[in-house]
Specification:
Number of helices: 15
Order of helices and strands: HHHHHHHHHHHHHHH
Strand content: under 5%
Structural class: mainly alpha
Radius of gyration: 21 Å
Length: 322
């Protein structure tokens, strides 16, 4: 897997996904309105995730990539399974903080898009919003992208794969927290040597809101909480909002410190901590080693990647304005 090739694949993935998803949505509208065919809302969501995995599999086939050899699908220890899930749940305060801050200047597209899915049974919600995205998105972004970028160094690879993961969401709100969790997911993969750790953490994060809503519905307080939340938004002052964000920031820092310890412990018992530390201490650890061996270096940011980043950023800003 080469950096130049994966960077060329980046715009192909995004453009193909947008085009094919839009085409599917159009066909579904025609089928419903013109042909009178009833199509459940979850079908569109499953097709969208299928589009992502199919595009990825086509790239793998064309490039001759071996999933077993080149992607880190190794079995992890049971304690790593538990710690990975816990790390995912402990990232939630950070996600909530970034989400609330970004909503001060951007729209929350995910909330509106997920309302239909929340009407389905709890198990179906888990499958649609937690299981499928965790498998599909980790396969693409930590398997293909990070699996390639890590050749330029763990930190560089984590930052770049997090950037691609954030950009793929195509809106500022989700980009902000997806970038951060994408970076953390890459370090989870590096700590265990397996993509399964990021799959588990991704699953944990995605199950949070579904589970909370389900518990509120069971206790009969969901509608009351929704009304209270709406009144709070209207009545809240700038000072109370800042205090809330400050408290959430404090909680986020505390839990992210625990996430760091989780990553450290897993990396230590997997014999990978020293390598990670050495890489993070210097962006040039691998470049120096390679230059001594006269090995040509791969630039992690190439022209196709730069153009893609600029184009997506412009699109996200335009989406907020218009």
């Amino acid at each position: 897997m080469e950096v130049k090739k994966i960077n060329c694949f980046m715009p192909v993935l995004i453009v193909s996904y947008v085009f094919l998803s839009s085409l599917v949505s159009l066909l579904m509208v025609v089928a419903i309105n013109q042909l009178g065919i009833h199509i459940p809302g979850w079908v569109s969501y499953v097709i969208s995730e299928t589009v992502i995995i199919v595009i990825g599999l086509i790239y793998i086939a064309v490039m001759g990539i071996s999933i077993k050899r080149d992607m880190q699908y190794h079995i992890i220890a049971f304690k790593d399974v538990i710690v990975s899930v816990l790390a995912g749940y402990m990232m939630i305060p950070m996600v909530l903080f970034i989400n609330n801050v970004s909503m001060l200047f951007s729209k929350n597209y995910l909330e509106a898009a997920s309302q239909t899915l929340l009407t389905y049974p709890f198990v179906v919600q888990i499958i649609l919003m937690a299981v499928i995205p965790a498998f599909v998105e980790e396969f693409i972004f930590r398997g293909l992208f990070y699996g390639t970028y890590r050749k330029c160094g763990v930190l560089k690879g984590a930052l770049m794969s997090g950037l691609v993961f954030g950009l793929f969401h195509l809106n500022i709100n989700q980009f902000c927290y997806a970038f951060v969790i994408g970076v953390v997911f890459a370090f989870l993969v590096e700590a265990t040597g397996s993509i399964w750790s990021s799959v588990l953490a991704h699953f944990a994060i995605n199950t949070y809101s579904i589970t909370i809503i389900q518990l509120l519905k069971i206790t009969g307080t969901y509608d009351t909480m929704q009304e209270a939340a709406g009144e709070t938004v209207v009545q809240s002052s700038s000072i109370s909002m800042l205090l809330t964000l400050a408290m959430l920031l404090g909680v986020s820092i505390g839990f992210m410190s625990l996430v760091y310890l989780c990553i450290k412990k897993m990396a230590q018992h997997n014999g990978r901590w020293e390598y990670i530390v050495n890489d993070v201490k210097s962006f040039r650890v691998q470049e120096n080693a390679a230059s001594e061996q006269s090995v040509p270096q791969q630039r992690i940011m190439t022209v196709p990647a730069i153009i893609t980043v600029i184009a997506v950023v412009i699109y996200m800003i335009a989406s907020e304005i218009f």
